[in-house]
Amino acid sequence: MRAFQILIDGFAISALYALGATGFTLIFGVSGVLNLSHGAIMVAAAVAAWAAASILGVGTYAGALIGVGVALLTAFLTYFAVVKPIQDSRRIPNEEKEIFVLTGTLLWGIMIQELIAYFFTNNAKTVLPIVEGVVDILGVRTPKNEIFTAIVCCLVIGLLWLLVNRTRTGKAVLAASMNPRGVTLLGLELTNIYIVVWAIYGILAGIAGVLLGMFLGVSSYSVGPLTASAFSIVVLGGLGSVSGSLIAAFVVGYLETLTAYLVSPAYRTIPALLLLVFVMYIRPQGLLGRR
Amino acid sequence: MAGFFTSRLFFISLALVIIAATLPLYVSGYVLGLLTVAFYFGVFAMAWDLLFGFAGEVNFGPTFLIGVGAYTAGILNAQFGWSVYLCIVLGALASVIAGLVLALPALRVRGPYFGLTTLVAVLMLQNFIVVFADLTGGEIGLTIPDVITINAGANYWIALAFMTISAAILYGLSQSPVGLVLQASGQDPVQAGALGFNIVKHKLAAFIVSAFFSGLSGALLVFYFGTASVGTVVDVAVGVNVIVSAVLGGRRTVLGAALGAIFLIVAGEFLRPTGELATFIVSAVALLVVLFFPGGFLGAALSREARS
After folding, report:
1. pLDDT of A94 higher than 80
2. Closest to B124 (Cβ–Cβ): which among A92, A107, A273?
């Protein structure tokens, strides 16, 4: 009974983590950018969906769409207002661009977080779920919303896989992650590829954010922990490796659920952090990372 | 190095310190209290800059070193009643040991991996403090019975003297041959190694120095506040402030980091009437500086001087 509960809850959480981390790792793989405003973009999506559905009353579907749209816009804004100016800057030496992107996106994330807190307060918000009610799976009363979350996450990740491996644009993205200079030599504009990647990222982060808002609820305080969990999942899996991130998301998701159920919810994050330190010790490049 | 004592930077710094030292004669205790905290923050930022600006290591967890120093000093005083000065020294030592423990595995990895290891260290420390609440006071914080002094002016002078001495040592170190080797190993480790310098030893030394000053400053800050809490010395947000201070003031300048910290804390106080938007405005200003003056305040000033 309890084992099934852990299995089901853990799956939904892990699928959500996986979706959140995939976009993050994709951007790093293709353009070498670690976007520390990730959590803020997810929360912005959830809060927008909540505001559209609860304050404007546009309905749950339109609200979810608006949430994803806001995430897409914020992702583009992040790229054009923060990341691109730093990458193009001549005053910042190349070897320091990484730390500048980190600092810049971190500040940008704090700005988004503060704006959300200013206009919508710090209170936790739960987005109205698209599907309501509970079903009984193997003796566990499971909210339908939880199943919906897991299914959407798996579907979106599947679609992403098709997009990357089966379409021309996706192949260009893949090629850019392997060898940016080679792609340029083949006559593809690298900036266009980056825009595509940021668009994919915005949509993924938006869907993850809206689902998170329906499943667990968000507040402006979730920004930091969300970024940190995506960051650690991605490093655990190996920076830039999408399949590594997926595995790591499930490892972390189940580890957290197990701890929360069997030990205490207060210690929830500790085993995952210990595992992370352990992996960094014996395999610094992460589970599936390339050096 | 000898040229420094005749340089314009030296005279400006000297004048600033002298002006700052006379402040208790004519400003209120409120301003002094604010600046006292700002000076301790300045030391945090300078210690961070030594590690990042010179050794090229992005330490996302400055508050790990600060927190270990602060909490060791606080716990020894609150639980065992040891004297304040002994606690401060032991706090700094604990921070050095923590720095060593962190540095040995962390220096095996580079770039973002190093950053993450240091970030995880902060999260672990935070969890540790909450889990062992009996010893550490948990989320509420630890109340410390002793303080160095309750005189606002004396506290201010202690902080100013501490910052000035730390600045002199850290700046001197950064301009010394050791600092140059550090800078070389940060920019091109392979070439620096090929020239026969032991990079790991130098980086480890930088880590120890950075940890020593972070821990010492953290311990002093705890005895100024009279409490140690996660929100003031450990939280990731505090670490972010330290990093932003250093980048804002100008990385690789050491002294600029202190200026950035003072600016950040004073600006935060001036913006208090704007309420919740204060953090937004400070972050926005910091982002604009990062985008348009990547050298920071001091970097921009120094490059203008070099050009003219």
Report:
1. no
2. A273
